Amino acid sequence: MSATYTLGGYSFSETEVRDLAIAWVALSLAFAIFFGGGGANIGALIGLPLAVLLLVSLLTAGVAFLLHEVAHKVVAVRYGQLAEFRADYNMLFLALMTALLGVIFAAPGAVLHQGYISEREHGHIAIAGPVVNLLLAALFVPLYIAGLAGGVGLVETLGRFGIIINLFLAAFNLIPYGPLDGKTVISWSKLVWAASFLLSVVLTVISVLVLGLSFRI
What we know:
70% of the residues lie in helices and 9% in strands. The chain is mostly helical. It has one domain. The longest helix is centred in the middle third of the chain and has 32 residues, at 119-150.
């Protein structure tokens, strides 16, 4: 019999915890390689540099992914759904391979849920992930400012990556295509989709083009 873990009143099966952990680590490793410039620079990254990048990635890209998926699950469960995350191991492998090429494509898995829900409730479940990413981006702003003001490179990097990754994930997931959240959100409410997608895109553009935030060390 598989074990069940409870956190904040929500149950996570042993399989779900395993898949979340594997996806978190694999995706974080992929982003760490990407942050370092890809496979062309892997020789220079071996050792402490890669360890530092992996730590940064676990706390930024990894947390962004983890809380995005947990948000989907929490809202689904609140609407009476049976909901669990399942990793997509083929896509995790693809994330690692693309990171080695100096780009990254990450779709580590999804929260699968079943049970009757309305279109509105389905929309709420879908938008929960991007909303959490936008909130996380805001939470990383004080860290980024503190790192800049104090001249602490690691803190500045954590804040910078935390902002840009979460904004990017929110915008990317709100694209109304295929299995992405945006397709479900726009089916529920075009107004909500337009407002959230435009906000995510505008903030991402401002962060990159105006503030000069980037994915590189």
